[in-house]
Amino acid sequence: MRRSPGLRRLGRAGHLVIAWFITFAFVLPIYIALSSAFKSQEQILANPLGLPAPFTFDNILTALTRPDSLVVNGLLNSVLVTALSVVILIPLSSALSFWISERRPLLKGILLGVFALGLMVPPQVVLLPIVQLLHAIGLANSYPGLILSNVGGGYLSFAVFVYVGFLRSVPREVIEAARVDGASDLRIWWTVVLPLVRPATATVGIFLGLWVWNDFLNPLFILGPLQGQTITTGIYVALGGYSADYGQLFGIMFLAAIIPVVGYLVSQREFIHGLMSGASK
User: Fold this and answer.
1) Which domains are assigned to the chain?
2) 3-class DSSP string for 66-126
3) pLDDT tens profile 181-209
């Protein structure tokens, strides 16, 4: 039964209203956080939705010049932890994915099933065993222990699944030709496979970078409150239990968000290429 033109127009209008409502629900918190970073405490309390008038950088300057250097150290620690985690995860997961893709279908399916467990188990479930393991090997309350915990688990599993999917598009003739020329598997992975899966590398790097940067529980429990902070735990400490300096809080949030945004803008071309390649498959 065909609907009348009036009902079709009404349906399209309803879809448009729902789309605008969802867009507004997503954009509103971003707008409030961004505008509040450049407003005084009085402006935030008086008119949370208003534009910053007058425009001020006091919140950001106050956050950067805290006597305890909480924000500066937190940003530097987050950059260090995120960069080292991603730098280790990308070659490890890509090489492992290449090795898995070369196995027989039965063994390949079993290995991917094992890595799927890393995506199914919630990180909170394995947090306590990880902390206990790091205590046993002497890496508790340390940045190497935090980086090691990031390398394992769901991050590695996600990267392996992305790379294995992209490796299906790599022509077998290219790999076989390299083998005929006498190249080892390590050389094939480095000189042939990695350049061909560059969009996958950008996709994995952006997702893993954001997840490690925004992680809160692992730095809180592995580092401990007295050993050091990343920017996420720094926001938690800076907020305090009895004060509500919203201006400084939004200023710290702005500083915490600006680095991932810049990283995405730098690599967005490869990231979009990766998403389009995955969609075409």
Assistant:
1) 5-58 (no CATH), 60-280 (1.10.3720.10)
2) CCCCHHHHHHHHHHHHHHHHHHHHHHHHHHHHHHHHCCCHHHHHHHHHHHHHHHHCCHHHH
3) 888 888 999 988 888 888 888 889 989 99
